[in-house]
């Protein structure tokens, strides 16, 4: 099955900067060594490259200056802004919904991937086939209005914890990436999330957690319809996929919704490769940044052989093109705020 990972992205809803034609002029660096921002980042060469890039493109005297309205940064979510192991977090929400609904559908106890999820066998559920996974999505995520769905997500976040870390799922947001978003906001970037996760799943919590408005959150979608309902208007979630915002879908949605090439792109897997390539095509300057999961103690270490967040083809291209590879173990003083 070629597409089962993108479907579950919906269910859970470069050692050097690649800069266009490096000029011969001396690069501008941050003025103060005691920078207020990025405190959870080690003082590494990679941090320096990131800050130098931002300083240069926001300096009106620099040849790579980019006007405020064109400073667009895009971030993947799973594995880039928060953890994604042992499975995408939206799968845990799916399991939560399945337990709520199974009494109405006793036949699910004998059907895949429902029975695997009910038994807690997430790996087996992931390999049940595309059609079965899509049907699981429809049964647990559709057939209701958007407000009801987002409230279900918020309730789940309050009631459930990560099964291994034993903390709320939103505690597993990366502190260094929160600081990066704050740093970019300070430099007048417009920051967008462009994720394979479900759009309304993320909008239920990501605005508060990341300080990113809902209109700047882009994700996978089911089809929706408008229902006036006797004077009570609703957006109703139909049981049909509309768009998977993964791989080639990411630049398509960026073009359709944002309408401009990003200047700065953050990701962690092969699913972000096309978004990196689209960012690299910026006519003035661009930086592509991959978060490499190398810390098996504080988080999880994985790349080429992982079923979740596979980083293989994109790792090769990042090395070949000189994109920035942030080493989680070496470059981050802490991973989570609670450490």
How many H/I helices? 14
Strand order of the largest sheet: 2-5-4-3-1-6-7-8
Please identify, by name, the CATH architecture.
3-Layer(aba) Sandwich
| Secondary structure: helix percent | 25-40%
Tell me the number of strands: 8
What is the average of the pLDDT values?
A: 91
Low-confidence stretches: 1-34
Question: Class by helix and strand content?
Answer: alpha/beta
Q: Which topology does CATH recognise?
A: Rossmann fold
Radius of gyration, taken over Cα atoms and rounded to an integer in Å: 20 Å
Distance between the termini: 38 Å
Number of domains: 1
Percent strand equals 5-15%
Shape: globular
Question: How would you describe the overall organization of this protein?
Answer:
With 339 residues, the chain is α/β, with parallel strands linked by helices. The chain has a single domain, classed as HAD superfamily/HAD-like (Rossmann fold). It contains 14 helices and eight strands. Strands 2-5-4-3-1-6-7-8 form an eight-stranded mixed beta sheet, sandwiched between helices. Helix 1 (4-11) packs parallel to helix 6. The longest helix is centred in the middle third of the chain and has 14 residues, at 146-159. Residues 1-34 have low confidence and may be disordered.
């Amino acid at each position: 099955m070629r597409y089962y990972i993108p479907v579950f992205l919906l269910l859970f809803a470069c050692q050097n900067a690649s800069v266009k034609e490096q000029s011969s002029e001396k690069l501008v660096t941050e003025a103060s060594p005691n920078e207020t921002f990025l405190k959870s980042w080690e003082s590494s060469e990679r941090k320096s490259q990131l800050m130098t890039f931002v300083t240069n493109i926001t300096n009106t005297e620099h040849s790579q200056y980019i006007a405020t309205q064109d400073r667009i940064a895009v971030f993947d979510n799973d594995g880039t802004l928060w953890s994604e192991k042992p499975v995408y977090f939206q799968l845990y929400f799916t399991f939560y919904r399945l337990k709520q609904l199974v009494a109405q559908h006793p036949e699910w106890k004998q059907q895949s991937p429902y029975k695997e999820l009910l038994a807690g066998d997430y790996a087996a559920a992931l390999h049940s086939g595309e059609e079965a996974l899509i049907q699981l999505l429809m049964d647990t995520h559709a057939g209701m209005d958007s407000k009801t769905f987002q409230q279900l997500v918020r309730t789940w976040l309050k009631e459930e914890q990560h099964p291994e870390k034993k903390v709320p799922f939103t505690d597993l947001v990366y502190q260094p990436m929160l600081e990066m978003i704050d740093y970019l906001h300070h430099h007048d970037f417009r920051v967008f999330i462009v994720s394979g996760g479900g759009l309304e799943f993320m909008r239920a919590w990501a605005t508060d957690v990341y300080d990113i408005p809902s209109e700047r959150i882009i994700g996978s979608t089911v089809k929706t319809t408008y229902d006036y309902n006797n004077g009570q208007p609703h957006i109703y979630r139909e049981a049909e996929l509309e768009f998977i915002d993964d791989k080639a879908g990411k630049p398509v949605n960026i073009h359709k919704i944002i309408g401009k090439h990003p200047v700065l792109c953050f990701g962690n897997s092969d699913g972000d490769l096309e978004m990196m390539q689209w960012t690299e095509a910026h006519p003035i300057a661009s930086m592509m940044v991959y978060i490499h999961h190398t810390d098996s103690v504080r988080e999880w270490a994985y790349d080429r052989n992982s079923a979740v967040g596979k980083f293989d083809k994109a790792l090769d291209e990042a090395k070949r093109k000189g994109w920035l590879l942030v080493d989680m173990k070496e470059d981050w003083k802490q991973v989570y705020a609670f450490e």
